[in-house]
Fold Arsenical pump membrane protein.
Amino acid sequence: MFLASSIFIITLIFVIWQPKNLQIGTTAVIGAIVALLLGVVSLSDVWIVTDIVWDATLSFIGIIILSMVLDEIGFFEWCALKMAKFSNGSGMKMFVYSILLGAFVSALFANDGAALILTPILLAKMRILQLNMKSIVAFLLAGGFISDSASLPLVFSNLTNIVTANYFDIGFADYMANMIIPYIVSVLASILFLWLILRKDIPKQVDISLLKEPSSAIKDERMFKLSWVFLALLLVGYFVGDAYDLPVAVFALGGGVIFLLIATAFKSVEPKSIIKEAPWQVVWFSIGLYIVVYGLENEGLTDYLTLLLQDFATRGDTFAIVATGFLSAFLSAIMNNMPTVMIMDIALDNMGENVNQALAYANIIGCNLGPKMTPFGSLATLLWLHVLAKKGVNISFAQYSKFGLIITPPVLLIVLLALAIF
């Protein structure tokens, strides 16, 4: 266990530190290679990990490509400006609407898409509105939190959702039916606690006349109108795929590529630029870190977790759901939610026939919300902080952790109880 733990800890340190601009994906792959060379994992383990994560990884690529094309034609900027105009100058309304916009983007375009695409747009609008830095940080913290807390309702809303749904053969419709209420509760609870914590930094009034009209953000009217139809058809496609037991990646990646081809035919985007700028490092990061953490599985971590989960199961369904969710949340906060969801899925599966499927959903909720307690808990947060740093906004480890540790536990508890009750 010592060797596997050491490789993981060193890899994670370099992922967070990024010395000399060492990319997170490169670091994770190096860690995986070291684990392989030292015998912590085998080639067969690499195949097992790849089999678990391939659908999630390809789906992520498709969603990001789709998001980048939509961003290029002005879709998200239009949404942000509409949100601001709807507020009628009320700082409180703008705060709530920005969270709802983040929840919408996270649900349909995944939490990483929300972090990569929406964050710079919102930051730009806050600066145009001439808000002070405390107010800007308040809006950004709220947006960063909702990107993960709202990534629950659909299988493709988060990579952790896809991995778990595939692992336990949960269909698209079944997943949505079980997670729609926790999603709604999570959004409402997030709004409440974000307001309670950040209300002093929210301006009472904002001068929305400083913002341009939403229509001016649209760069291609035809593609903009088509995008709404395409998104609706794509969502229908996911349900059709569910009926025929097709992988999520068929529609997520297929949809992203088709939309890119349509936009290219309309001369709305430059395809080479979209492909080049796509965050490929995220792909290597997810696969590499999964392999590194699988070494911990080989050393008996999942066996220990299975014993804990079996103990939880003897104490009643509600206790088991809440305890499983908090266990996943704690592990995600210290070792990232990507590998945590896989390790916990394996541990749950080891329970055999005694496993309650509700625990798989509790694992997802814990892995989606729990990472917000630390800056390195989720890939979306790492991307979010990286985007902000490039834009001149630096949020320290202590500042973020203080915020995350205050807001995450109560929201997580409420969502897990909603899962247990409904």
